[in-house]
Amino acid sequence: MTTFFATAKRSFKDVGVEGEQIQTTEFLQASESVVTLFDHLGSTAFAAVQKDMTGNIKKIRDRQTSHPNKSDTLQNLCTNELAEGKHTATEGLVWLHRVTVSTASGLEFTEKALRKNIDNPNEELATSFTNAYGETLRKHHNMIVRGVFGLAMKACPYRVDFYKKLGEDATEVNTQLGEWLTALELTNGILSRYLAGVSWK
């Protein structure tokens, strides 16, 4: 039996990381897989998150395509872009990792929500995602956006149904999800440290 993680374009555990440098192409492929993961939550309420992530992935990829020799890692891509007085892709990476004014970051939000769910096997997805939202995004959103996310949290499927969508073999799903999350946490940690020192204003 296959699982979501086995069929995804790339898992975060397969993203090349050397020291504090993250391989750009592999990171973008893994991020695209996060977008498809939201499909398994079965709610159109998450469409805004997916659209936001896809747009920011495109900003980074466009820069990589136009400057391939200076974009092997995310850090090199941003450093070289900022040196030119530009910041479109760098801004896209910040928003992909953290938050935007109108919607949300997919990576940090997803990481924290699924980690909470794995660590609390009796907790429903709606609770895990609501708590993760409160920790990562809520303070950045106005009342209207908070309302949208409140609906999205309530629309989360039951835990048992979500995990079945990820694969029939529960043991395999849990193993692969654990590996995926650990790698995503590593990547997010590196990005947090790097982006803390990045400014274009």
TrEMBL record:
Keywords: Transport
Stretches assigned to the Glycolipid transfer protein domain: 22-168
Pfam families assigned: GLTP
GO CC field: cytosol; membrane
GO MF, one example: ceramide 1-phosphate binding
Keyword Transport appears in the UniProt entry: yes
InterPro entries documented for this protein: GLTP_sf, Glycolipid_transfer_prot_dom
Protein name per its UniProtKB record: Glycolipid transfer protein domain-containing protein
Source species of the chain: Tuber aestivum
